[in-house]
């Protein structure tokens, strides 16, 4: 695996094979599988993808811009639709069960999203993204949301997310204890001396 998006591309290729589609040009905007992806994105975000909001990701796949509200719709719909009979429910359950079983495949060792999934046994799903984005949802309470750090620096995400989780009472005492180190980010200089820390304040 040579790219941060390797898993996404493996999923696209697997989807092409499962749907008996040509896969040589699977990342082309006009490829049938990319159209299926757009249909799903529009369904879950409850929005229409406009031409001006389309770009090319660093991994060469089509990339789409959505508002925070649209992304919040997506994560809430993902959780809600798993319990209703629809064309996505089976796939959603398979996805969430796999994430709960293999949390390291979401972020990796010492990554906040993987740690949250691991210590909540998949009850809380969260996924970090580029430029300071985190989507999260408590699958037992159907509560979810999106965090976006304005300057794109992801180091502020864990303290802020933990503050939200605690404020909304999403964590048990054991889960909170296991994740407590993420409530602040200690800053070090090149000499490994502590020079500050990042904490969060929220208004909910």
Structure, described:
The protein has about 200 residues and is of the alpha+beta class. The chain folds into 2 domains: about 1-65, no CATH class; about 65-204, no CATH class. The chain has 7 helices and 7 strands. The strands form 3 sheets. It has a 3-stranded antiparallel β-sheet with strand order 3-4-5, sandwiched between helices. Strands 1-2 form a two-stranded antiparallel sheet. A two-stranded antiparallel ribbon has the order 6-7. α2 packs across α3. The longest helix has 14 residues, at about 30-45. The termini are far apart. The model has no long low-confidence stretch (mean pLDDT about 95).
Q: How confident overall, as mean pLDDT?
A: 93
Q: What's the arrangement of strands in the largest beta sheet?
A: 3-4-5
**Global morphology:** globular
Q: Strand pairing plus helix content: what structural class?
A: alpha+beta
- Element-by-element helix/strand order: HHEEHHHEEEHHEE
Oligomer: single chain
Unreliable stretches (pLDDT < 50, length at least 5) are none
Task: Report the radius of gyration as a whole number of Å.
Answer: 18 Å
Number of domains: 2
What composes the largest sheet? 3 strands, antiparallel
Q: What's the end-to-end separation, in Å?
A: 41 Å
Portion of residues within helices: 25-40%
Give the amount of beta strand, in percent: 15-25%
Q: Helices and strands in order, then pairings?
A:
Blueprint: H1 6-18, H2 32-45, E1 54-56, E2 62-64, H3 68-80, H4 89-101, H5 112-119, E3 124-129, E4 133-138, E5 143-148, H6 157-167, H7 173-179, E6 185-188, E7 194-198
Antiparallel strand pairs: 1-2, 3-4, 4-5, 6-7
Helix pairs in contact: 2-3
